Amino acid sequence: MVRRDRLRRMREWWVQVGLLAVPLLAAYLHIPPPQLSPALHSWKTSGKFFTYKGLRIFYQDSLGVVGSPEIVVLLHGFPTSSYDWYKIWEGLTLRFHRVIALDFLGFGFSDKPRPHQYSIFEQASIVESLLRHLGLQNRRINLLSHDYGDIVAQELLYRYKQNRSGRLTIKSLCLSNGGIFPETHRPLLLQKLLKDGGVLSPILTRLMNFFVFSRGLTPVFGPYTRPSESELWDMWAGIRNNDGNLVIDSLLQYINQRKKFRRRWVGALASVSIPIHFIYGPLDPINPYPEFLELYRVLIQKVLEYEVLTTM
């Protein structure tokens, strides 16, 4: 009898916990996205949208130095947006005649369709489409990219080298802290779970909040360059815009794509005739030192050997 009463009380307790947890979970899952800060709101209102296959893509386009022919296109990283470049935007306008940046599909203020098979190939085509929209398809373009944007830049470089129709004519390329070598890339635990989680991924994307996001992203920065809490909130606001947190697992498939198309994208960096500059923060935990730099040196050595052979 005592045992039966104990089991009954335990069942009643769990029922009460469940009745309390359900509305709390429902409230948590329906927390609205944070309000845009004045700076982020200004970034959005000063930008524009164009349409790519029925999808709205956000971009910034600023005129800079008068009389200069130079154009630079900025390709942002994962999981943020074109707003990453706002601190150097004014400086770039003092160097280039035209400074252009976009939010890739699934990022920032651009559309975030779901379900959707996001791919690096599509993002590269969106960049090409934007430049056609701006009437710049026949101009020589400087590319400045970071992280995820590095892979998009590599695909654009491949198309340029293959003389593909609709390609960008690339004048120079600057890559910064991107996992251009999949074998040295060390994704965060959460990234691994999201890209390979199967049925678990949709649950994790819904449970993700600012605390999880900020704790996961902050260690990626160097000890002296970590973003402030307000900057992290701006990043999170961009992700939450249009329920972007629900497509993070789909966007992360780029990690698997990078392995599959390694030969294509790493090969694009070899035997190129344009200037390539590389910026690498050696404290990057995602692309760790020294393995990453050793592979890059091997690649450069192969490029130099190729150049010697072709000039003999």
Automatic annotation (TrEMBL):
The keyword Translocase does not apply. The keyword Transmembrane helix applies. Keywords: Membrane, Transmembrane, Transmembrane helix. InterPro entries: AB_hydrolase_1, AB_hydrolase_fold, AB_hydrolase_sf, Epox_hydrolase-like. Residues 71-303 form the AB hydrolase-1 domain. The chain crosses the membrane at residues 12-31. It holds the Pfam family Abhydrolase_1. Belongs to the AB hydrolase superfamily. This is Mesoderm-specific transcript homolog protein isoform X4.
